[in-house]
Design a protein that fits this description.
The complex is a heterodimer of chains A (about 450) and B (about 325). Chain A is mostly helical and about 450 residues long. Chain A contains 17 helices and no strands. Chain A has one domain: Up-down Bundle (Formate dehydrogenase/DMSO reductase fold). Classes of the chains: A mainly alpha (about 450), B alpha+beta (about 325).
């Protein structure tokens, strides 16, 4: 395939990245693999010795794992909602950032469900979910929704990649044979004929339209795992939209961080521009305000109504001796900080927005923890248990090791994928790009002849 | 009868055999049934339907009486005992936290001391209210939140009102534990320590034996004993007749000493169900702790120190 001037430019810039798996990359890969290895060992222990080696017990039946699950499914919204909506609205500046967004989606949709599997006592009976499914159970809804969502977002990512695979295939890159072969297979004979172009464009639009409601369903269903129970702090009608919003919000944060990292690592400043940070910052600010509003109304009603159970939970969240500081951090770093950084023109810089995103993403993880653990520590009947570990949850090294292994897997997948595909989509810089410049027609009959 | 023989016979013959076997199984209850009275001489073969639904022929000498007798098929265990509606009434005015119910339950089900399917809480409804002992087992709700959320149908509601768990089906997701508002369910966090003969015992959701690692379990109202016409061990063990167990359809409940009309009892004593407002419709009724037989301290003084610790906060007047 012939490339136009801009495509050639961006391709040349990124060629070395996909041609070589440099020393530095190997270093990081090994680092991640070590973490994953430690997690693997922890998982082995958990399977052999039972869940006793985790901090979970009869009252707090779920802990870090579920918080991680919500967190990873949450950040997967970066691709689904942000890139989906921007695609539907045909926002031009989306082009350099959509691939990063979609990669976040696909990767975190793989990692998230792994964490829910870690909560399951009998992994050897996982097939029961398909052998004896009960549609009444929100877990069944989750299984269906997440599988569909994963398939949908993988297709969405792949559709956008086909043109690029064709470019890599034809570029005579200095790469091993298997990689060349992979590109050839994955390009599925794309030559850029008008009909092929049209098909991809139509499918992309369809997927973009489908992925948005699908994503909303996934996180709503996820929130209903909690919302459908009769527990204080969970049994809330606001939970569906609250979770969806928090998910898009944290997804935007992760997207900003990923953009910042790639811009630094691969020197892509002329493509991942300041304006991208600022635009995404605006989106983050609006989402932050909405998220703050939801948080406020959720806790205000619980606190004001002061029913016995709600009251007990709220007093734990407000008490500095219990979860007070974490709750404060979750709200300051998760709501106030990002809004302030973006709202004040002086602090509206890529670096500061990234820092705000970083703290916001951590705060949202803390928030998920605060949704899960304090509620489970406040059962309706008095616990009256002398076993400290049954009364108060504290995660063990096994759970932390697996948590970090999950994060390492996220980075590892990201690193490996960015060595296989270009972070900035080349084909997207198409036909009538950038002001005033004549556009080179990629479409030539002879291209089709050269098979 | 092996498979080849079944294949050689005609289809009609097979159905006939199956019918005979089913009748035999129903008559006996099951393979490992209490057929002691019908015990035949060694060498006599008996055709039976196994819990897996296969027809097996065994020497009648192998039909042993077991302590947990009625090991019915999985299907029967899911359907429940026809015509029954089990119900329990707990008389709070009689409880002095003797904890005999707890230990009897643990012994019958081969559960360790830290697994309490039945626990006794010290409740205090308001700041100035008098504390009282509150034995609590599974409420076998008619609108059970735990059953609703189970993704694999491992916990189920039966026609006789019981909510049971099939621990060979359970995947251990613990969603039911999160959904139960009464913290009734317990999880096998590690491999349960059991005697060898118990480990080898045929599992049934009706007996809950043997326990399995990574699965959820809870009070089952002992339907295996109900099939034999026996009361649950907690009812029998209670020295004060706190628990009445029986059948709502028959309108009789018994605490072992006396058998009374269920309707009359809950009417006369103004029975209530715990946290009715949750809409779970429990099958356990409580008789309010009025005119108590024992001062609440009687259940506290002689407790071992570690159990005493549980109730310290309430006993020493601190509000919950």
């Amino acid at each position: 395939m012939e490339l136009n001037k801009y495509q050639q430019e961006i391709f040349d810039l990124q060629k070395p990245t996909i041609e070589k798996y440099g020393k530095k990359t190997w270093g990081w890969t090994i680092f991640y693999l070590l973490w994953i290895g430690l997690g693997g060992y922890a998982l082995y222990l958990q399977i052999v010795k039972g869940h006793e080696i985790t901090g979970m017990r009869d009252n707090v039946v779920w802990g870090l794992y579920i918080a991680n699950f919500i967190f990873f499914i949450g950040i997967s919204y970066a691709g689904a909602v942000i890139s989906g909506i921007l695609h539907i609205l045909k926002v031009e500046w989306r082009k350099p950032i959509i691939r990063i967004a979609e990669m976040i989606t696909v990767i975190s949709t793989i990692i998230g469900p792994i964490f829910i599997l870690l909560c399951i006592g009998r992994l050897d009976r996982l097939h029961h979910l398909f052998l004896y499914p009960r549609l009444q159970s929100p877990i069944t809804w989750d299984v269906l929704a997440i599988l569909t969502y994963f398939t949908g977002s993988a297709i969405f990512l792949y559709l956008a990649l086909i043109k690029d695979f064709a470019i890599y295939r034809d570029a005579k890159l200095d790469i091993p044979k298997w990689k060349q072969k992979m590109y050839k297979i994955l390009a599925i004979g794309y030559r850029g004929t008008p009909s092929q172009k049209k098909h991809i464009s139509v499918s992309m639009n369809l997927m973009a339209i489908m992925i948005v409601p699908l994503a909303i369903i996934v996180h709503s269903v996820l929130s209903w795992i909690f919302g459908m129970t009769l527990r204080p702090g969970w049994h809330s009608t606001i939970f569906g939209p609250y979770f969806v919003l928090a998910a898009i919000y944290s997804g935007t944060g992760v997207l900003i961080m990923a953009m910042w990292a790639y811009r630094k690592m691969y020197n892509l400043k002329s493509y991942l521009e300041d304006k991208h940070f600022i635009y995404l910052g605006y989106i983050m600010m609006i989402l932050g305000a909405a998220y703050g509003y939801f948080t406020f109304s959720e806790y205000l009603t619980d606190w004001y109504g002061s029913e016995k159970w709600d009251n007990e939970l709220i007093s734990k969240l407000f008490n500095p001796a219990q979860y007070g500081w974490w709750f404060l951090f979750a709200n300051l770093a998760g709501i106030v900080l990002p809004i302030a950084i973006v709202a004040i023109p002086k602090t509206r810089t890529p670096n500061l927005i990234t820092i705000a995103s970083f703290f916001m993403v951590i705060a949202l993880w803390v928030k998920r923890y605060l949704i899960i653990v304090p509620t489970l520590e406040s059962p309706l009947l008095p616990m009256q248990d002398t076993r400290q570990e049954f009364v108060k949850y504290s995660a063990t090294w096994v759970e932390w090791a697996l948590t970090f292994a999950g994060i390492a897997t996220f980075f590892l997948f990201f690193t490996m994928m960015s060595k296989f595909i270009t972070i900035i989509p080349i084909s997207e810089f198409g036909d009538k790009e950038k002001k005033g410049e004549p556009v080179i027609d990629v479409q030539k009959e002879k291209d089709i002849v050269t098979v | 009868m092996n498979n080849d023989e079944i294949n050689n016979k005609g289809r009609r013959d097979f159905i006939k055999t199956a019918a005979v076997a089913t009748i035999a199984a129903t008559a006996c209850g099951s393979i490992a049934c209490s057929c002691s009275s019908k015990k035949a001489a060694v060498g006599e073969k008996v055709r039976l339907l196994s819990p897996e639904g296969e027809i097996v022929e065994i020497d009648s000498a192998y039909l042993n009486h077991q302590e947990h007798m009625a090991i019915v098929s999985k299907l029967e265990a899911r359907e429940g005992i026809a015509g029954k509606r089990f119900v329990m009434v707990v008389d709070l005015s009689r409880c002095k936290n003797a904890r005999k119910c707890v230990t009897a339950c643990q012994k019958w089900h081969y559960r360790s001391e830290d697994k309490e399917w039945l626990s006794v809480k010290l409740m205090k409804d308001s700041d100035k209210g008098a504390p009282y002992w509150f034995p609590k087992q599974c409420f076998h709700c008619d609108n059970p939140p735990c059953v609703k959320v189970c993704p694999v149908d491992a916990t189920f509601k039966r026609q006789d009102g019981l909510v049971l768990i099939d621990n060979e089906r359970c995947i251990g997701c613990k969603f039911c534990m999160a959904a139960c508002p009464y913290s009734t369910r317990v999880f096998n966090w590690d491999e349960p320590e059991l005697p060898l003969d118990i480990l080898k015992q045929q599992y049934s959701p009706e007996t809950g034996i043997p326990a399995k690692v990574g699965t959820v379990e809870k009070c089952d109202f002992c339907p295996d004993r109900a099939r034999e016409g026996l009361l649950p061990p907690c009812v029998e063990a209670c020295p004060n007749g706190v628990f009445y167990f029986g059948d709502e359809n028959e309108d009789t409940v018994s605490n072992g000493d006396e058998t009374v009309s269920f309707k009359q009892l809950i009417k006369d004593r103004a029975a209530y169900r715990f946290q009715e407002e949750l809409g779970t419709k429990p099958r356990v009724y409580y008789l309010p702790p009025k005119d108590r037989q024992f001062p609440v301290e009687r259940g506290y003084e002689d407790l071992p120190e570690n159990i005493k610790e549980r109730y310290k906060d309430v006993m020493e007047g601190k509000s919950e």
